[in-house]
Write a structure and sequence with these properties.
The protein folds into 2 domains: 2-91 and 111-351, no CATH class; 364-471, no CATH class. It has 19 helices and no strands. It has helices spanning 2-25, 33-59, 65-86, 106-132, 138-154, 175-187, 192-215, 220-232, 234-241, 246-264, 274-291, 297-320, 326-353, 374-384, 391-401, 403-407, 412-431, 435-439, 443-470. α4 runs parallel beside α8 (220-232) and α11 (274-291) runs parallel beside α13 (326-353). It is globular, with a radius of gyration of 22 Å. The N and C termini lie far apart (57 Å). The model is unreliable at 267-273 (pLDDT under 50).
Length: 471
Amino acid sequence: MILFAFIVGLAIPALVGWLVIDLLEGKTPVLDRIEKWTLGYVFGVTLSMFCAFFGNVLLGIPFTVMGFLMVYGALLIAFGVPWWIAKNGRSSATPLRHSAHESPSRPVTVALIVGTVWVGLRMILLTLTTLMTPPFFDDTMDNWNLRGKIFYYGKTFTLEFPWNATPGVSSYPPTVPLMKTWLSTLAGGWSEGLVNSIHVVWFIALLILVFCMLRRSLPIAWAALGTLILASLPLEMIQGVNAYADVFLSVHLFAAVGLMVQGLRCDGGTGKGVSRNTPTQLRLAGLAIALVPFTKNEGWALYFPVLLLLFVGTLTWCWQRRAVTQRELLRTAAISAVMILAICVPWIGFKFVHGLAFGNAKGIDWHLTWQTGVLQAIGVNTFLEGNWGLLFPLFFGLLIARWRTALRSSLLVLTLLFLIPYLTQLFAYLFTGLAQEALFQTGYARGLIHLMPVIVTLTVILLHDVLHAKK
């Protein structure tokens, strides 16, 4: 029953997301099949849980098998009917490809295979540990799984823990706990292994998207290298296969920025012209941006404004250079605005009405003063601990050495998504009461997890640029 719940519980929201993506693509597909299903799963989970949440809050639909199936049925009808009507006019999926035809040498191929096997074995062992061991991480027990249990046994949404009258960490979006509730409801009982398994799936989805992003920019060996680098980072792997929600937020951020980057590329990854593919890429990016606030509180408070700024900047760039027609640009902007407003307004309105915190479950003391020891703690975490290996010296070195590439190409979107939130967090840790998040090696490291796919992608592309320039 657990295996059935896992397969069906993931397949239904993935189908919902796939239908939404296919409708947004229309007659201009821009994604490979594996990209489409991966994004379909990521987007479908968040969108479905958003609808299940408001279905319960506004209509009283309970968190039972029948209640969840009512929500999924409504979504499948709402998106499936227009898809069925328009399906005959759709083109086939866009395969992954890049203009460069660099065949890796045998030593490189062997090294990549060995690295893949090694990383794969580590992931399998850690995954088995997660699935077979009772959770012991604080946020897993006290937040994500605990809230999922409360929703599962109570069959309804509640802000308050039965033993605590204050909202506390219940100010978080309920997406992750509700997904756990859905799987347990489908299985007919709460299973820690089952509900924790979805975090591993999100990590695998992130690795797939990073590979696809790099593959559209670089030869396959470099795409594989970048994916291996991300998967092999110690803290990234620990976060990826354990029941934390930072990778869940990370995959939404990377999807949004990756789609914007592809939209700015001269050929959109297909060789058929930017005017043909850019609107579709940006509509998909608009959906990703709309879903970010419903992932974690940091999604709204820290990353959503930056993503919205980058999205408006991308639209402005297209307008000024006439990369797309005025009609297509306005249509893309309108569709994206509707999606963003349809998700953000109800959720943010709900938080305002109930007085929920917008930060990471903590208030911020805005009395600015220099926080002693924070700079040293950040330096140790970034450069001296084993969390990231030698990634950051390489990354910052490449960012300085190839600044023109990082700032004067479509990579500007990736660069700004790293720099703006990173510098904002540094300021908060160095001058506000959030200093403890850096001193205790908690919030700062998690912020890096959110941005790690962007960091690794930039590092690999810039490294390839350096080596290619020397030839």
